[in-house]
Amino acid sequence: MAQRYMRIQNHEGKIFYGVLQISLNVQLLDAPPWLGGELTDVCLEADNYLILPPCSPSKIVAVGKNYADHAAEMGTEVPAEPLIFIKPPTSVIPADGEIHYPPQSKRVDYEGELALVIGDRVFGCTPEEAHTKIWGYTIANDVTARDLQRRDGQWTRAKGFDTFCPLGPWIVRELNPGARLQTFLNDQTTPVQSACIDEMVFPPNAIVSYVSQVMTLLPGDVILTGTPLGVGELHIGDRVCVEIEGIGRLENTVTTSTHKKF
Questions:
Q1: Taking CA 239 as the corner, what is the angle to CA 227 and CA 117, rounded to the nearest 5 degrees?
Q2: Residue 262 above 50 pLDDT?
Q3: Which candidate among 56, 119, 142, 165 keeps its CA 20 to 30 Å from the CA of 250?
Q4: Global pTM?
Q5: pLDDT tens digit string along 48-93?
Q6: Could you tell me the fold of the domain covering 60-256?
Q7: What is the 3-state secondary structure (H, E, C) of 60-123?
Q8: CA 144: distance to chain centroid?
Q9: Is the CB of residue 15 less than 8 Å from the CB of residue 7?
Q10: How far is 125 from 131, CA to CA, in rounded Å?
């Protein structure tokens, strides 16, 4: 099994990066792994840490309509070039974190996605160079207030609510290009989304290169690569699970928002 790199918090509130062991203990690193962190002799046992999002990005850049079938279900053509937007870092929550259903919306959707973690400062790289800039891979859910997305005509509010970017639970360095992504709701055994990641219109290296022509990507930044066919509605009380072969599963529960409506 590939090494799984985690970001965790101990009971004293200190945050560490580490490598998950088969025992579920985490062997700590002395720095973030993409900054050259080395393994230490310190381990935290499974009941002595809280799982955090696996990185703390300065920004999350997402790609819309990057699977042809999903573009079709949204009633649009496949874009001629990557369609990018930003989710704020405050939208990130960990595996098992709660997605808060905002009172401003009456339709919130799941969108299971592969996420790329950037390992190096990069601006203006080629697609060939981009392979060396992707440090690893994790799972994301690009939660979207669909009614607000359609109403606003641009996506900042619909995609940017706190808790609208579940991320994790860990990062792996390598991934099969044909790995399958699946999304499940509650106790259903049939996925509501199921596609191979090599069905993307724009592959990861092309996306990283494209984004890097626009903005500087920093170590620990995250790129969401788009969602396949099958997006659908979430309700308060739902459990949504996104699985990617070779990474694992990201599961979150939908709850009532703690924010007031303005």
A1: 40
A2: no
A3: 119
A4: 0.95
A5: 999 999 999 999 999 999 998 887 887 778 889 999 999 999 999 9
A6: Fumarylacetoacetate hydrolase; domain 2 (3.90.850)
A7: EEEEECCEHHHHHHCCCCCCCCCEEEEECHHHEECCCCEEEECCCCCCEEECEEEEEEECCCEC
A8: 13
A9: yes
A10: 10
